[in-house]
Amino acid sequence: MVELSAYAHFGIEAVNLVLLMIAIGICTGNRSREFYLIFGLLIIPLTFLSLTDFLLAGIAITGIFGLLRFAKWRLNKGLMINDILGFLIALSIYLVVTIFASSVTIILLRPTFNTLITNGAVIVLLNSLISTLLFAGLLFFVKKKFLSLTIAEDEQRIYILQIAVFIGLAYAFGEIMRLQHVLGIYIFIMIGFLVAQTILSVYFTYMMVKKNHERIELQHLQQQIEIMNAYTEEVDRNYQEMRQFRHDYRNLLLALKLDPSSSVANQKYLDQILSYSEGMARKSVMRFSDLSNLEMMPLKSLIITKLSQAEQSGLKVRFECLDQITLINLAEVKLIRVVGILLDNAIEAAVNSQDKLLRILFIRNKNNLEISIENSFNGTIPALSIIHQVGFSSKGKGRGLGLTNVDEMIKNETNTELIQYVAEQLFVASLLIKDV
Amino acid sequence: MALPVFICDDETRFLTYYQQIIKNAIMINEYDLELILATTDPQDILRYLDKNKITDSLFFLDIDLENKENGIDLARQIRDQNEFAQIVFLTSHPELALETLKRQIAPLNYLIKDDKSEKIQIEHILEQQNATMTINRRSNCRYLTFTLGFRKMKIDISGIYFIETSVVPHKLVLYGEGMMFEFYGRINDFERDYPELLRVHKSFLINPNQIINIDFRKRVINFPDEYSCTFPIIKTKLLKSMM
Known about the structure:
The complex is a heterodimer. Chain A contains twelve helices and seven strands. Chain A is of the alpha/beta class. Chain A folds into three domains: about 5-185; about 230-280; about 290-435, Histidine kinase-like ATPase, C-terminal domain (Heat Shock Protein 90, 2-Layer Sandwich), CATH 3.30.565. In chain A, the strands form two sheets. Chain A has a five-stranded mixed sheet, covered by helices on one side. In chain A, strands 1-2 form a two-stranded parallel sheet. In chain A, a hairpin with a 3-residue loop joins strand 4 and strand 5. Chain B is α/β, with parallel strands linked by helices. In chain B, about 35% of the residues lie in helices and about 30% in strands. Chain B has helices spanning about 10-30, 40-50, 70-80, 100-105, 120-140, 185-195, 235-240; strands at about 5-10, 35-40, 55-60, 85-90, 110, 145-150, 150-155, 160-165, 170-175, 180-185, 200, 205, 215, 220, 230. In chain B, about 30% of the residues are buried. The chains are: A alpha/beta, B alpha/beta. The interface of A and B includes residues 388 and 430 of A.
């Protein structure tokens, strides 16, 4: 057991707590001055507490953090989850660094055991230096890798649980080992084991969540296909009915014509009606003549489905495709999913708007194809950074994976880009696909 | 250098009619414009453009040409070669105005033929073009330009609220009156090129003329349409001195 003077102990622990405060600030993205001020003032009493009872100090720190941020949490639940996750990450870093820094210092300086070391300054300095370096290193790593990811709220809860378990076990083992006077290498092994186990379980959770997302996407795609099939059947049925109607109508008109009692003038009118009805019936149910220019079958069915859906929802729809489109430089599956999501979003927004406008444009430019989906909207569109977040949905919880999925799908495609903007009171989502 | 003007319409009576309106307007008002070519054949115009490099120019094109493709094709070719050309479409069927064309060719206007107000509209366009010629020579900075996808956009700075860095790396988002655009760009470059905009934050470049109010306690600047941005303590002095 390395015995240090009270001042040395105090110094080491105080430095660690200051580093913890900074870590909490960085991990939670906390900007409020009051937090730093109050926590800073409490560092001295907390250090005393930590020297006497480590566990109690941990509880106290958690309590203080909770109290300070409570007011903000009441207003914004999402912020609370985010904060707790950040806090727990900072706390785990603190625990790991405390143990490792002291172990490393002992290894480096090899102080004599069980005699009071009067010149503790060197130890304090070295320990503080190592702590700071480790803290900085780990914080940098965490910040870069994890804090830039956007994690959905329910996923955050899972991670919080896992990290909380880790911290709980770490404190528990710490207490047990202290009471049992277990020292040295055993502490090392114990903490090492806990860290490894936590990292593994967090990693597994992450993989599972990813798989889950893919499963949901596949479900959506299957739903889309089912809708398309249903619509094709309906279109077909309509067409058959139209044919039947035209047949009967024609017969009736012909019968009228052959009636010997009808005058010449009536004959003329009957001829007119006949030719008119012929012309009408000949037009296919698909009013959008430009659709014939779109020669990619799966995409065509999707567009037909969505156009009909839109019209049935009471939207004013416009479809333009001036040039023939046969090939598109994007994998079919991705193309259909992306266009499907963008159309769903557009239809939904337009239905809630006053103008109820929806436009779908296929524009062939010199070396790219532009698929532009425009819709009128109600009120103000939230900033793009917000609508792209995972979990954002104006339609309630459990939805809102749409745009994030679009981002995921095209971020690896170097020849595809999604641009979004608002102009002339329409929200435009434009998919730009470069030609080969 | 006078701004060149071109007319193309396959019906001679319309051609001469427009020719007269334009010539008279230019002469009477002494506009800095010149009618270069008035023809029924689109190829004439293309041949002229092949031989002469021009940038700023004004075209009146009939898109109801016999073979409908010709009118649109001509417009496309002009636009391809020349992004500064101003194109005015003349048509008897305004209901066929295609959004795609508006996007690709960005015409200045659609004029309806056989309409009583044709003459006035044409004169108005000529007057506008004449005015822009003088203004463009004076100052460059009234417009902010950027590339959106494959198109260059020009936005009137006075309508911009602010520009912020996007969560998507290397992109910026511009918010303004009835508009919002996300495009590739570096905020430092825009700060340097447009001194009218104020850099109040690592991520925000604002147009001071559009500020509604500033909350100095919460350090938030409020803009129309419920948009807002924050700023750090360091900028408080700068903002206060501006108020």
